[in-house]
Amino acid sequence: LSIDGVSDDGDLLVNSASLSGTLDTYALIASATWTSPATGAIDVTVEGSGNLESFSATKIEIGSEIGDVAGSANASWRDQILLDADLGWESLVWPSAAAPELISQGGDVRVDWSGDEWSIAGDVDLGTPRIPSGTLTFDARGDGDQVSVDILEGRLLDGTVAGTAGYSWRGEQPVSLDL
């Protein structure tokens, strides 16, 4: 099955998609562009294979005016939805290239998600237009109630930092910070 140039008459354009095999074992190569006023055009390419219970993306590429991200991911949905992904980037800005608030010269992260629980761990270079770039090695995790972050090692402003931070978006929304 091949699809070329299909649009939802809105924000999504499937540039191309090729699906081969059977439902028990299939291969997918797809390219799409999603456009929004906040981010501009985001191009996504995915290559992988799967079956009725899981999908393994051996190649994920996401490109936009704010930067490029590449990686791989695995998803399964037999008893519950599980996702793990390894992502990396060079020269990424947020929220826009014209007015960046955050600037990252590079990073590598591992993302795990299971139902309501998630974790992100990795090494990132991070700065702002007013604060020079520094590096952080971190381990963050959360759920529908809270998030906590362990800063395992950080180097910024000619110094080092380590510690923990937490935030709850329930109740009184307590914040904790120990550096």
Description:
A hairpin with a 7-residue loop joins β9 (117-126) and β10 (134-142). Helices cover 0% and strands 72% of the residues. The chain has strands spanning 2-7, 12-21, 26-36, 40-50, 54-64, 67-76, 82-94, 102-114, 117-126, 134-142, 146-156, 159-168, 175-178. The chain is mostly beta strands and 179 residues long. The chain is globular. It has no helices and 13 strands. A 13-stranded antiparallel sheet has the order 1-2-3-4-5-6-7-8-9-10-11-12-13, with no helix packed on it.
Helix count, per DSSP? 0
Question: What is the total tally of β strands?
Answer: 13
Biggest β-sheet, characterized? 13 strands, antiparallel
Could you report the average pLDDT, rounded to the nearest whole number? Answer: 92
Our estimate of the beta-strand percent is: over 45%
Radius of gyration: 19 Å
Structural class determined from secondary elements? mainly beta
Helix share, percent: under 10%
The strand line-up of the biggest sheet is: 1-2-3-4-5-6-7-8-9-10-11-12-13
Measure the end-to-end span: 54 Å
Which key terms come to mind for this protein?
globular, mainly beta, 13-stranded antiparallel beta sheet, 13 strands, 179 residues
In short:
The protein is mainly beta and 179 residues long. Helix content is 0%, strand content 72%. It has strands at residues 2-7, 12-21, 26-36, 40-50, 54-64, 67-76, 82-94, 102-114, 117-126, 134-142, 146-156, 159-168, 175-178.
